[in-house]
Amino acid sequence: MSIVLVVNSGSSSLKYQLIDVEASQTLASGLVERIGRGVGHARHHRDGSGDDAAGSTWDAAVEVPDHEAAFAVMLEAFAAHGPSLEAHPPIAVGHRVVQGGARFFEPTVITPLVKINIDELAALAPLHNPANLEGIEAAQRAFPDVPHVAVFDTAFHQTMPPAAYTYAIDRELAAKHRIRRYGFHGTSHRFVSRAAAAFLGRPVEELRMIVLHLGNGASACAVAEGRSVETSMGMTPLEGLVMGTRSGDIDPAVLLHLERRAGLDADGVDRLLNSQSGILGLGGHADMRDLVAARDAGDEAATLALDVYAHRVRGYVGAYAAQLGRVDAIVFTAGVGENAPLVRELSLAGLEAFGVELDAERNHARGDDARRISTDASKTAVLVVPTNEELEIARQTLELVAA
Known about the structure:
This protein is an alpha/beta fold and 403 residues long. It has helices at residues 67-81, 112-120, 129-142, 162-165, 171-176, 186-200, 252-261, 266-275, 278-283, 288-296, 300-324, 334-339, 341-348, 360-364, 389-402; strands at residues 3-9, 13-20, 25-33, 39-46, 56-63, 92-97, 108-109, 148-152, 208-214, 218-224, 227-231, 329-333, 371-372, 381-384.
């Protein structure tokens, strides 16, 4: 059996997938949201592929005061709408955990000590690790007889050299407060880099590539021989590329200026940079589809926002090309990277000197599978590769428990 339940627990939501790893098939997926906020909402989708039953989707309003109640809703959905967990029992539960610090560099069986460490690392991810831990504890009560495995977003980036992850501040202060670059989206970058290598028909150990995970959150990663050697997010997911509502890179003195002249306190700066910036702050739209539509309608603010967005991506591609020495492939993934041909075009404009030659027809063609969008003559392959973080978590979980 190779069935794994993958859980992604947020502060007010529970996402899950039941995956047959050997078949790379999702048997069911679901979401319970508005946990602890009165009446919540649940959605459960049964795939039906390879099963006698047809695919179906169930939606309902539910009472979910806490994560334990959310797991009860999930179990009831499996029982009522399938597939049956008795007929498809998970051999393990894989959990997405955002921050593993410098302590966790591979998938880890969850023990009481591991939970203590996840809790201690909440200081570095206060919006994520506590919710991840709540989900772990609720899942352990719901599935007490199978191993639970933590897969950390930061783990893939633990191969970065010290020169890449070290900030140039007082080293004793940095060590005391664990201030360094950790990087995020690691599960996606790992999955996509390996999927890109498979598409190219070459071992990942032979390749050097730049993976661009462009969604509402966005990050770039330089991957050499299957290892992360540089990534754009830092101690938190705020650093790096322009995102939906996050600023990305900014002169730290701007924050001091806003504190002194605009009267912003720490919470105000936090809200500004994480929730009111990015393409929302520049162009008035956090969704790239809305921003592109506004740009096409002649909105100057939207046009500037897209130009800033692409300029930042292009800068990171150039910097990572210098770090890697050569670039065999540039890979776009996640919601924007997979579905916004204009963003891909703008982000690669002017990179012909790096061996990039985009094929306009291929770039605008739609598809659900990995595909090449560069010309056949392009020295650097440009690919679009759909990410699947849940499948990657399931694979890593199965590899660990089956070892």
